[in-house]
Design goal:
The chain is mostly beta strands and 310 residues long. It has two helices and twelve strands, in the order ααββββββββββββ. Helices cover 14% and strands 54% of the residues.
Length: 310
């Protein structure tokens, strides 16, 4: 080997040692990018792949997922089928919720002439309003128990009603009905979060409620009353009622801000047991007990409200 070959071999060896040391000294860092390397030979390109792979893994590791595992409530399959229902955490455990729901329904015969076309001289008006404040506590995720109060007012009037079909002839006038009831009850709510942002949710409320109040039914006008007459042109009947009610009320809830939600619910199924005591203006009294079940949407039991979750 001549002197020139020895020099070339030594220079080539030193070059490989320098390149190896440089590659060995490279450290993966999120700050490094592909622009930091010239990329003129295959050895450096291989190092770029390694550094880029480490950088991507570090990025994925540092990035927080949108939905954490603790925000998903697993729904156990019922029976033989797993329907794959995903329940997002909507009301976390330990939160207090409070709010008020209200409803208002009004009917006027002037707005329903076509519906009551078979009736003659039909003049009627009715309205129902209610308000129910409540407070609850989340005993676990998406499960809330609490208590509520309520007040309801109903008034209905029939000024005239004539109904005539063949031999059936009915004529009513000057009928008045008024009802004021108060309620106190316990409720249990199960929420289902339906989106990963935890903004929209469904719920089902089971409630046990005690209602009490008075009603008044008046037929005729007091000016027409004649105490000495056997014909009762004026009758005023007052009723005191006590009622125990179990109901199922599904609904929908939407968080419009971070801690405030709007909701709507309606009654579907109800069981009730009640006692009534009556007395009229002639001194007659009466009692009765009643019970029943309701399996339909009650248009007079639709509530819209606002809740606060803290």
């Amino acid at each position: 080997m001549n002197r020139n070959s020895y020099v070339y071999s030594t220079a080539l060896l030193l070059l490989f040692l320098w390149v190896g040391g440089a590659v060995h000294g490279l450290k993966a860092s999120p700050i490094d990018t592909l622009r930091c390397v010239d990329g003129r030979d295959s050895v450096i390109r291989e190092a770029i792949v390694i550094r880029d792979t480490v950088y991507l893994r570090d990025t994925v590791y540092r990035e927080k997922p949108k939905v954490l595992p603790k925000d998903i409530i697993r729904v156990k399959p019922r029976g033989r089928y797993d329907r794959g229902i995903i329940n997002y955490r909507y009301v976390p455990k330990g939160k207090w919720i409070g709010g008020v729901t209200a409803s208002y329904t009004e009917f006027d015969s002037d707005d329903s002439r076509l519906l009551f076309s078979l009736l003659k001289n039909f003049d009627s008006h009715a309205r129902t309003s209610s308000i129910k404040p409540f407070v609850g506590y989340a005993v676990k995720d998406n499960v809330v128990v609490g208590a509520k109060l309520g007040y309801s007012h109903t008034i209905a009037e029939i000024d005239n009603l004539d109904f005539n079909i063949e031999d059936l002839d009915v004529s009513l006038k000057d009928l008045r009905y008024a009802e004021d009831t108060y309620s106190i009850g316990l409720f249990h709510r199960s929420y289902v979060g339906i989106d990963n942002a935890r903004r929209f949710g469904l719920f089902n409320e089971t409630s046990l409620t005690y209602n009490t109040g008075t009603t008044r039914f008046v037929r005729g006008k007091e000016a027409d009353a004649d105490p000495g007459s056997e014909e009762r042109k004026y009758v005023n009947t007052e009723t005191t009622l006590h009622e125990l009610h179990i109901g199922l009320n599904p609904g929908v809830s939407v968080f419009i801000t971070e801690n405030v939600a709007a909701e709507m619910s309606f009654g579907v199924i109800g069981f009730k047991y009640g006692m009534e005591k009556q007395k009229n203006n002639y001194g007659e009294t009466g009692r009765r007990r009643s019970s029943g079940a309701n399996f339909k949407i009650n248009l007079f039991n639709i509530h819209i409200g606002i809740i606060v979750c803290i």
